Hints:
Blueprint: H1 2-21, H2 40-63, H3 73-95, H4 100-121
Helix pairs in contact: 1-2, 1-4, 2-3, 3-4
Amino acid sequence: MVAMIGALAFSIVIILSFLIICGLPLGELTMGGQYKVFPKKLRIILVTQLILQIYFVVVILQLGGFVSLWFSPRTTRITGVVMAVYLSVNTVMNWMSKSKKEKYIMTPLSLLAAICFWITAL
Length: 122
């Protein structure tokens, strides 16, 4: 159940990332709200990030036993712990953001996903 909640929280982030890549004015949700609409060069970087985010959803679902093993159990567990650490740091960074939208929308999503990754990976 925890893995499903984490996957859902992370999937919301994926949807928001996709919308930012498409040019919607949601840039205030990331990078300290520096851009309302992301410049095209940064959108290319977001595509790479989007692919990684999808991979991380697969990882948490695999850790929770909802997806058959695509990767070795060891690789999956290490990736889960790395993501838990990353999301924990990301939560703090979002909370310190100058952007109120990032602070109040992305911080809870990141915190929820971090908790789910910690519980599922350990």
